[in-house]
């Protein structure tokens, strides 16, 4: 059905239809001539204004639009390609490839607006998702089909952890990943693509980008595009998929811009009145079913470091685990710079992980906390003033700190050290031994940047022979 554009206000476009009324979220296509080439612009219906007029949000820049232009209702929501053909490619919000290669053809197409799995289809068991990263698996384990918040400032290694997880899922679990760049810097998207290419993980990941430079419609809906691609692998192929969203705050921010453009009365702090529902609708689609799972890692930007801001606060309600990166740990040269005392997980429970894992994790946290408490005394009086027990705690805590570091596969190019994937049982055994004092004879440097405890012992023997 063809309608006519009646008004253009930046990213908001009104279209008149006669004898047909497109439904909410229906896609409307307009052919725009820009600099001599024809360009397909997709509008998404956001409101009915009456008398056959609908108000839409443009999924790209609205340059070149004029009143009276033809707009074709497609009779369906935005659809994007899914399946094996999307792997190794970069897509925009409407499912077009933007990596300079051929467009994806003859692949199944799914609507980006999908209902979450029915409660009867969802998995009720809580299962740990092994990442191969020691500090994460031991102290803040991820849940299969769960949601993880990745908190950290600029330059402390959020993207490196995301890339390592993609690598480990591809090689350790033979699994697939989907990355959605939501309102982040275009340069970062470019860097990520080439780094993945160099690390040989590109064929196991689909990339979707709606970057900072794009209108709010594209930045908001790109998260749905990414989730739709992940849902195909979960529902049709029965796989455990890893879904990365960088940055989930921008999803809320773009929703707020769209709400303002549509003239809705704002709610707290100027956010859209529908913030909790929109966040819930997105997060509910990320879950485990009886056939497969989507586990998501979401980078969370906290505006002005205010955790009570409605956007990050609406994300917290959905998270199963938080991985907090700390600049002070990065400054010590310990990578990944995960804060072992600040990171949390609802899986850290003896009934889920078993008594041994839980006991070792809590022991490690207690030892590190005691070391933190003793640091003032050490700074003022020195180590000699401590009791024998406290000296042991400090020495073991320093070994634990060093042993929490790990060489990454994706950083091999920069460090020259081969990456390590550490199995959960090796991680638990290693830290259990440190806590029990089995490795008190080894210097703390033996524990730095190694994988399992066997490597630390080999490093110690090599150093003592010199």
Structural summary, described in words:
With 466 residues, this protein is of the alpha/beta class. It has 14 helices and 18 strands. It has helices spanning 134-139, 158-172, 186-198, 216-235, 248-261, 275-284, 310-316, 327-331, 350-353, 355-381, 388-403, 412-415, 424-436, 453-465; strands at residues 2-9, 12-16, 27-34, 37-50, 53-58, 70-73, 79-81, 90-91, 109-111, 128-129, 142-143, 147-151, 176-182, 205-210, 240-246, 293-300, 321-324, 344-345. It has an eight-stranded mixed β-sheet, sandwiched between helices. Strands 1-2-5-4-3-6 form a six-stranded antiparallel beta barrel. Strands 7-9 form a two-stranded antiparallel ribbon. A hairpin with a 2-residue loop joins strand 3 and strand 4 (37-50). Helix 4 (216-235) crosses helix 5 (248-261) and helix 6 (275-284) packs parallel to helix 7 (310-316). It is elongated, with a radius of gyration of 25 Å. It starts with a strand and ends with a helix. The relative contact order is 0.11. The model has no long low-confidence stretch (mean pLDDT 93).
Any descriptors?
8-stranded mixed sheet, alpha/beta, 14 helices, 466 residues, 36% helix, 21% strand, 6-stranded antiparallel β-barrel
Strand content: 15-25%
Tell me how many strands there are. Answer: 18
Number of helical segments?
A: 14
Biggest β-sheet: count, sense, barrel? 8 strands, mixed
Kindly state the percentage of residues in helix: 25-40%
The N- to C-terminal Cα distance equals 81 Å
Backbone CA Rg: 25 Å
> Low-confidence parts lasting 5 or more residues at pLDDT below 50?
none
| Broad structural category | alpha/beta
Strand order of the largest sheet: 8-14-13-15-16-12-17-18
Overall shape: it is elongated
Mean pLDDT: 93
